[in-house]
Structures are given as structure tokens and as C-alpha cells.
Amino acid sequence: MSVWLGILQALTLVAVLVVLYRPLGDYMATIYTSHKDLRVERGFYRLIGVDARSQQTWSAYLRGVLAFSLIGVLFVYAIQRAQAVLPYSLGFDAVPEGLSFNTAISFVTNTNWQSYSPDVTLGYTVQLAGLAVQNFVSSAVGLAVAIALVRGLMLRRSGTIGNFWVDLTRGVLRLLLPLAVIAAIVLLAGGVIQNFTGFTDVTTLTGATQSIPGGPVASQEAIKELGTNGGGFFNANSAHPFENPSGWTSLFEIVLMLAIPFSLPRTFGTMVGDKRQGYTILATMATIFVISLTALTLFELNGAGTAPGLAGGAMEGKETRFGIFGSTLFATSTTLTSTGAVNSMHDSYTALGGMMPMLNMMLGEVAPGGTGSGLYGMLILAVIAVFVAGLLVGRTPEYLGKKIGPREIKLASLYILVTPTLVLAGTALSFAIPAVRADVEATSIWNPGLHGLSEVLYAFTSAANNNGSAFAGLTANTPWFNTALGVAMLLGRFLPMVFVLALAGSFAAQDRVPATVGTLPTNRVQFVGLLLGVTIIITALTYFPVLALGPLAEGLQ
Amino acid sequence: MTTLSNTHKPASPDQHAAPHSSKPKKAISAGQLVAALPGAVQKLDPRLMWRNPVMFIVEIGAVLTTVLAAAEPFLGGPGESGGSAVPSSFTVGIAVWLWLTVIFANLAESVAEGRGKAQADSLRQTRTSTSATQVQDYNPETNPGAEGAQVRTISSADLTLGDVVIVVAGELVPGDGDIVWGIASIDESAITGESAPVVRESGGDRSAVTGGTRVLSDRIVVRITSKPGETFVDRMIALVEGAARQKTPNELALNILLASLSIVFLVVVLTLNPIASYSAATVSLPVLIALLVCLIPTTIGALLSAIGIAGMDRLVQRNVLAMSGRAVEAAGDVTILLLDKTGTITYGNRQAREFAPLTGVTEAELVRAAALSSLSDPTPEGKSIVDLAAERGFHRPESLAGDIVPFTAQTRMSGIDLAGGGGQIRKGAGSAVLAWVGEAGPVPEVVLAELTAEVERISRLGGTPLVVATGTASGERTVLGVVYLKDIVKEGIKERFAELRAMGIRTIMVTGDNSLTATTIAAEAGVDDFLAEATPEDKLALIRREQEGGNLVAMTGDGTNDAPALAQADVGVAMNTGTSAAKEAGNMVDLDSDPTKLIDIVRIGKQLLITRGALTTFSIANDLAKYFAIIPAMFAGVFPGLAVLNIMQLSSPASAILSAIIFNAIIIVVLIPLALRGVKYRAASAPRILGRNLLIYGLGGVIAPFLGIKLIDLVVSLLPGF
């Protein structure tokens, strides 16, 4: 029964995403190629002194991205430190330095890793003015960078790749804000709370007094999923009934997570003038998604042990209102995008099941990935795939008529290098530095042994890939993890952006070689297979040894 | 409307000249391997290895394991790795096979280089210093033949740009240059391998001589056009030896990708032990090195430079010299092929078939005029006109006095101004001749209409109409009629163009003919497009236009006229019979002077790229099997559960790791012949080629190591301790 229900959920999800693909994808293409500004946008441009018609070189665009994000980090850090004197702080104190640093970076980098329990740490001002704002803008920054890369592929002999401030503003005002409002209303209807009442003390049936937190949750929840952010209002995140009351709100939240990333290939296809290019990227993403979801669900349904046997699957850490399938679908969606919201505890999954969310992130979060970051991640992999296999047809490799020369391959390679290095170095350093290791073993790891290793590995994988979900058994609010994960998030977000924008500039400057029958076609089923192969071999194999030490060793015991 | 633009082509350019070029070489022989071995060992020098980062890593690994293997007996044998005991000969085994891996890689390069060495040696002999007779104070105005001029004898090595030398029969030409006076037959076999002598003469497009060739008859005065050490032969030697080989853009890009893959795996290996230490499963250094070497793309890293050298070598074997590897790569990317009609698409020698006099002109008049203007025309067309005229009763006069008006690509006509008021005769393209007649007065409408009809009739037949006109001493000029030159399309050319079309290459025929003739020939030959009544400027403009659209253009050329177009084209193949200007402008020289070879060059370019891609794909796909061999073996002692991943059922952890390393080394040797010979290229659409190659090198790359490692393991497991 539950299997059929699961399949029904999956089919509903697919149907909704299919319906959204064309209108949402084309709408985004219109947003980023339109020559008209809204009145409110014109006012905003005047305010910040930007000429909306001016175009930026890739380096100017990058400076915009970095400057804007730096200001974001400083601001979010400052208001956390100043929480004690801010209104609506619910009486919470200033957030400690290390945690403020980590949290500021976390939300600006679209990671939303939370080393703290939000419901007992942050007041409404920080939640709204700091975190919620970053939920919108960090997502819009990701979209802007992806669009800049698509423009690079689209333009011919151009020194510029668009205007960051315009892309950012349009992403927020024309896309994220309206969609988030609609989504928030739907969530409200679904029972998600929205108030400013702080804590309410209630007397329970047994007579005990319980303090029930309130807050503007629905508005946060909408952008949390839509912008693939994932930072929950409550510690339990989307497993909390105030954030995610029922099975259908859970499915709706999954739709929100996947809507933009899965529609971006359409935007790409429309912008480069070949919709089949978009379908190829989409097909690759969807294939990975289906394989990963199937594997995770099978692992969870077949969990070994007495309890899973009785429950018909591994129900530990999962909510009964979602069930196994509602949980695995959410887990797959949240880790294959850069969301990181959870409606079940990944730490409690079966060993091999717990490996899947990790593997999803290790793939680089490209299926479909975060808002923007998924598309540019996949396009980078396409560049590598074209380079390796493009030679096989006897031409120097080209993607969409752009030659992949030394400069392009250098940038794509550097992109590929960043996350594995951060993940592996971070995990290794946690155990290699004696003082750190002592602290990690004594304070952070709650489940010593193989599972403890997986927890640390998961943390760095999640941070470097800007996911933000956690293997819950790890106490990360320590100086080491706050700092190391903060650095991993920062570098994992912005180094790739540097390379993507440089690549965009390099592509834009090139002419477009016309396609002939001798050109490697990148809009066919064949290329889907190729891209899949490259994704798996280039990214997943990097992590094989370390997975063998953690979840694989644990699962195959 | 008609021109003789192509009449300066060699008489029979379609013959494959050098006999040694047609004989395919075997990819590799045991003797070659042995001969290359010393070179391979020499290349172990880290200063040389550094240039190949992937193999440099392997060499460092080899040094480390060697040191460990030597130290182990004193440290109490190899320690445990990943919780399992290691046989005492394990480290030695790894060290030996790592050294072999590096040597095999160097061997591939040495063998590739060795093939060019023989040719370089014979070329070098031609470079041996000869003496040169240098003319002092050469004056081209008063004494172009430098008869009795003051000369001095200097060494050919001391010749510089602009020097003028005299070369007489029996002497070697001391340096590259242009003949400024005289005509001579020259033996160029040292360079082209073709034993039949060629004629070189001053002026025109056949004035270039190459240093090291021998003058067989007559006396010539040559102006030196190259600096010492930068002659054609010097460049050839550098090219065939691979000394001048610079990494091409694509090779550079591939190297970057391989280096970054190596870095990723280096990170994987370096971080492994700290992480493993948490589970008390640390592995020993030799095992780590083995893992690293197996993961980094050694196969392609080892063969990459051999593939490049072999690609150049394949061109050399076909008597084509590429001035840079970049040009060979560009050849694979060519999307437009500009081909001269005459000599490439049609046989060079057009034959006069018919004299078509206009009304009021007798055939005899036309025959006489056409024949007289052709008497001093040495081209096959000219000769065929005289021959046909003789059949029609024309008698060759005892002597002919007059000024010859040579053909130029600009005037598109030639002729003769007879001495003693004998009048003028012009023959050539209709438009050009009509313009000439028009200078004297308007051409009557009737004549024009009849001429146009006649020209069109011949054009539709695919022939070249050659209009003949005369002028009297008093200034009257009349059109006499048209000579029909028949053009014959080469056999099999249509199939070759169809093949090119299947590769995604458009062919454009360039011809001086009018568009009617061009249409007929184009349809008959199956080219995609044509440029009719083309001047060199038109050709250059066409190339620019196509390049602006993003196309890569290849062309052949030999005349000085062609030089700008050759320089503009992405692949410009100059004929060896051509002028120095043309050879200088192009980025390849065809020693056989065979314009159809352009098609072969494109194939070789594609083959080079495919080979590179195939071995890269194969190399990366291999990683999958190696992982399944090594990962379960590495931690088998601590996590016996990982044995599930040992799907090859390898006998022991030590054997699994050693077998993977041995496979990694042996696969290089196995693939050397493929790297040298190149992957077979069949003209087909890109998706089909890709599908086929992915199946062979992608899927094959996944499967082959599973089988190979298993087989090697069966042997290794027989060793004591494994």
C-alpha cells in the first residue's frame, strides 16, 4: 500500500514539475533577457546608483557578486552580535562570535548550515532582517551567476556578460518574491503558523506546562524551499509540525525546492536558442534524481534489524505522517538541490541509506542542484564531457559552438577541484591535528566509530557543497567546526563562482562556430549518457575511498 | 568570361609522386622498441619528466617505493597495511612495476621520435656545408645573368638573406632562394623523394629552389631568401625529429585536465590516512602510491606526446610538412575546403575540342589566330590548341616575331602583339576579351548576341569557352570566335566529396571559369558551392567571409598570388612547386604538390584528435575497475565486509594491488601501436562516430581492466606470499 502511495506522490511531483517546466523556464528567460525595467526597479537602481543599461565585464560582474556577499556577511554577523539590543529578540542574548561567523557565512552562501537551535538562539529581527533577506538574495546571486554563464554561451564576441545588479534585482523582485508570497499563502492554508507571539505557555493534558514557540514561519518556509536555502525556523526543520504539518505540505515543499532548479534547463535552452539543449541537461538531472531516489528508498525499505522488520522499513528518525517514501523523496530532493532542509533525520537512516544523501551532495549537487548553482555545475560537467568525448569525433572540442581550449578547461578543472579538496581536506584535518582530533572525538562525535566518521564527512560535504543539511549526531557548535565549516562554505560557494564567471567571460568573447554534421551534438540521448558517465566518474569516484571508510564499511559489515 | 587562370599548374599534379610515400609503415616492430630503449631510459631525467606532470608523479612514486624497498629489510620488513599483512616482496614488486610504467611511457615517445630520426638523418646530409659562389655587387638591371661578374667563394653557412649566388650544373644549391635569372633542371629527390628532375626558372611561380638540392643542367643566379639555420631543410629536420614540437592548444588543454585529475587524486590519497586513522585502518606508503598511480590518468599521460609526434609523422610519410602541430589540429576542425578546379577537381590538362567561328569569320581565320597566340604558350591547353589547329590545316610558321602578352590573374587573357604591323591577338575569358575589344569601339549587338549564345552553349557542356579576338595595326578590333576547351572531372572525386560532406565539411570549387561552366562542373563533381570568375582578391574575400561566420577554411595554393589567401586560411597547404612566397604564407607544404591531398590532411588531423580522445576516454574509464580492485583490498583487514566489492574475486589484497599496478603498466605498451598508428577514422556523422568510439574506448575502457586485472591476478597469485 505504502509503495503505491509513494509512487502516487512521485507521479504527482513529476506532473507538477512537467507542468511548470515550460512556463517557469521561459518566464525566467524573459526576466533575464528583458530590456524593460519595472518602476520599483528603476527607483532601486537610482538609489544604489546603477545604470541598468550598462553591461559588465566578467570581472566587474564578479566584483559585484563578491562585494554584495561581503556586505551580506558583515551585516548578518553584526545583527547577530547586536541581538541583545534589537527589538523582537525574544530576550535572546547576542550570538557568540564563532557561531555568528558561521551563521553569517552559512546564510550568505545559500548553505543554511545551522550549528545552533534556531528556536532557542535567534529572535525575530535576526530571523527576518538577517536570515530571511539572505534567503532571497543568496538564491538570486546563484541564479545571476548561472544566467551569466548561459549568456556567455549565448553571446558572440562580447566583452560583457550582463549586469549583476540588474540580474540580482530582477531575480528577487520578479521571480522569488512573487512566488514566495504565493507559496507562503498555500503553506498557511496547509497549517503552517505565521505570528509574532513569541513563546506561549500552555498546560498540556497531563497538567504539565509547555512553552510553545511561535513566529513568522510560513513566510520563512516558502523562501527556504523555493530558494533552495534550507535553514529552518525550528531546530527540527521541516520535520517540525509548525513548519511542515502534513503529507501534502511536505510534497508541496518538495515542489518548491525543485521548481526553479528543474526549470532552469528550459531557461538555458530558450536563451541559447536550442530547447533540446535544455532537455538534454534536464534528462541528465532527472536520471540521476530517479536513480538516487530509488536506491535510497530501497535501502530504507530493506533496513536490517528487528525494528525495521516490524515497521516494514527503517522508520527511526522519520515522521509517521510522511512515511518512508515521503522521507526519502524529501531527503533526495533536499540533497540533490542545495536546500538542506530535512523532514527526517538522515543520521538515523540505514548506513547505506545515509550514504545516499552524502553521495548526492558529492555529485556536486547538479541534479537539479541549487537555484542557479545546479545549472552552472551541470554546465561545467558538460564542458568536461564535451572535452573528453568531443575529441572522439575528430574535432577540437566545442560546446554550443564555443571552443573548449586551454583557458576554458583550466577554469572548468579548477571548478571541479574545489569541493573535493575542501571536503577531503576538512575531514582529514579534523582527524590529523591532534588537538582538533581530541576535541572532535570528545565533544562533537556522539556516535564513535564508523558512524562518527560519516558524521564528520557529512558535515564537510554539506558545507563545501553549500547544502546545509546535517547528519544530526554531530555537535558542530565548536570553535573548530564553526571555523572550518565556515571557511568550507565560503570557499565552496565563491571560488566556483569565480571560475564560472571567468568561463562566462571567456565564452562570451568567442565567436560561435556553426554546427555541422561533424560537430558533436550535445542535444541528444547519447550526450545524456556521456554526461552521466562523466558526472559519476569525475565526481563520485573521488569520494569512493573515503566512503569505503565510512558508510560503505558500516553498511557492508 | 573565360580564363586560363589555372594553366600554370604542374602538368600532372594528381600523380602520387614520391614512391616511398605510398608505402604504409608498420606501426611498430620489436626492433624499434629495442632501439628506443636507451632513449627511454635517458628520459628518466627528472628535468625532462617534469614536462609531463602525470608521469612525473609516477616517477616520484617509483623513487619513494624504491627507497622503501631498500630500507625495509633493515626496518623489519613491510608493516601491516589496512589491517592485513603484506608479503615481503610486495614493495619491491610495486617499485619495479612503477619504474616500468615510467619507462614504458618514455618508450612510447622514443619510438615515435625514432621514426622521424631516419628521415632527419638523410635530410641532415643535404645540409652539410657546401661552398657557394657569391656574386659581388650584383646588378639586376645591367647584368642579370651575372656574366663575368666578380665572385668569391664562401661557405654556404655564411650566406645571409639577400645574397646572390651562381649555381651551375653539378653543384648543390647552397640555400633556399628564388632564381632571378636562368632556367635549370634540378634534382629535388633529397627532399621530396621524387627522383625525376624538375625544371625551375626565373620569374613566375616556379622560381623557388631549396638548399641541398642539386642542379643537373644549366646555370642559374639565385637570390637567397632564408637566414642560415632557418632554411626549409632545417625546419624539416626539426619537425620530423619532434625537436621543434610545441604543445598544441588542444594538447595543452588536455594536459591541464590530466594534471587537475592528478591533483584531485593526489588530494584523495593524501587525505586518506588521516581519515582512515580514525578507524585504525591506515595503509602503508607503497599501497597509497599504488592507489595514486592507478587513479591518475597514466595511460593517456604516457601516450599523449607519442600521439602528437606520430600525427606529424603520418603527414611526413605522405610528404606533407606541417609547420606547426597547431595546423594539423586545425585540419581536423576544417569546415570549408577551397579547392581549385583545375588539377584538383578536373584533370589539369584541358583539351581544345572545337573551333567555333562567329558568322562572317572563316574557321581558318579563327584557327590561325588561336594557334599563333598559343605557340609560345607552354601550358597543356595552349599545346592542345596548336595540335587541334594543325589537324585543321594550320602550318606552323618558321619564325614568329612579336611581343608575348602573358596571362595574369588580373587581366585573365593572354596573347601576342605581332611584329611588323601584324596586328594583335588576344584569347581568354569572354568578359576580359570583350572589354579589350570594347576599348577600340563598341561591339555590334549581333556579334555580342551570337558570342554570348556560343559561350553559353560551351559552358553548359561544362567546357571552358576561350574567346579569340584580333586587332589590326589601325586599331580595329574584332571578335573571331570561341575555342571550346573540354574539362574532364576526375574519376572518384564525387565520392570523395560525398565523404567530406558526411564529415561535415563543405567543399567550394574555385575557378576562373564563368558561372555557367562552373555550375556544370560543380554539379558533375558534386561540390557544395563554387566561386566562378575568381580573382585572388575574390578568394581572399571568400575566406574572410567564411571565417567571420566561424568557419575554419583550408585551401591549397602555389602562386605568389595565392600567398595572401594561404596566409588567411586556417590551413594553407602550399605546393612544393610553388613560389617561396606561397610556401612562406602557408602552414603546410606538400612535397608532392598534389592538391587533392588536402582531403588526406583533414583525415589525419581528425585521426590525431580522435586518438587523443579515445585514449583519454579509455584511461579515465579504467579507473572504475581499478577502484574495485584496490579499495576492498586496501581495507580488507579492518573491514572484511568490503570483500563484497571484490567482484573480481582477486586472490589476496597484495595480489589485487600489484595486479592493478601491472595492468596499469602493461596497458601502456599494449596501446603504443594504437597511439602511433592512430585510431581508424571512417567518414560518418558525428553521432555515429561518437557512438562507435564510445562503445570501443568508453565501454571497452570499463571492461578491459576487469578482465586484465583478473588475468594478471591469476598469475601473481602463484608468487609466494601473494
From TrEMBL, chain A:
GO molecular function: P-type potassium transmembrane transporter activity; potassium ion binding
Transmembrane segments: 6-24, 60-79, 128-150, 171-193, 248-267, 279-299, 375-393, 414-436, 484-509, 530-553
Coiled coil: none
Keywords: Cell membrane, Ion transport, Membrane, Potassium, Potassium transport, Transmembrane, Transmembrane helix, Transport
Gene Ontology CC: plasma membrane
Bilayer topology annotation: Multi-pass membrane protein
Subcellular localization(s) per the UniProt record: Cell membrane
Record bears the keyword Transmembrane helix: yes
Pfam families: KdpA
Family of the protein in this entry: Belongs to the KdpA family.
Quaternary organization: The system is composed of three essential subunits: KdpA, KdpB and KdpC.
Physiological role: Part of the high-affinity ATP-driven potassium transport (or Kdp) system, which catalyzes the hydrolysis of ATP coupled with the electrogenic transport of potassium into the cytoplasm. This subunit binds the extracellular potassium ions and delivers the ions to the membrane domain of KdpB through an intramembrane tunnel.
Protein name: Potassium-transporting ATPase potassium-binding subunit
Organism of origin: Cryobacterium lactosi
Lineage, opening ranks: Bacteria, Bacillati, Actinomycetota, Actinomycetes, Micrococcales
TrEMBL record, chain B:
A Pfam match: E1-E2_ATPase
GO terms, molecular function: ATP binding; ATP hydrolysis activity; magnesium ion binding; P-type potassium transmembrane transporter activity
Family annotation (SUPFAM superfamilies): Calcium ATPase, transduction domain A, Calcium ATPase, transmembrane domain M, HAD-like, Metal cation-transporting ATPase, ATP-binding domain N
The keyword Cell cycle belongs to this UniProt entry's keyword annotation: no
Compartment(s): Cell membrane
GO cellular component assignments: plasma membrane
InterPro entries according to UniProt: ATPase_P-typ_cyto_dom_N, ATPase_P-typ_P_site, ATPase_P-typ_TM_dom_sf, ATPase_P-typ_transduc_dom_A_sf, ATPase_P-type_domA, HAD-like_sf, HAD_sf, P-type_ATPase_bsu_IA
Occurrences of domain P-type ATPase A (ranges): 147-241
Residues the entry annotates as binding Mg(2+): 558, 562
Region span, Disordered: 1-24, 116-148
UniProtKB keywords: ATP-binding, Cell membrane, Ion transport, Magnesium, Membrane, Metal-binding, Nucleotide-binding, Phosphoprotein, Potassium, Potassium transport, Translocase, Transmembrane, Transmembrane helix, Transport
HAMAP family in the record: KdpB (MF_00285)
Protein's recorded name: Potassium-transporting ATPase ATP-binding subunit
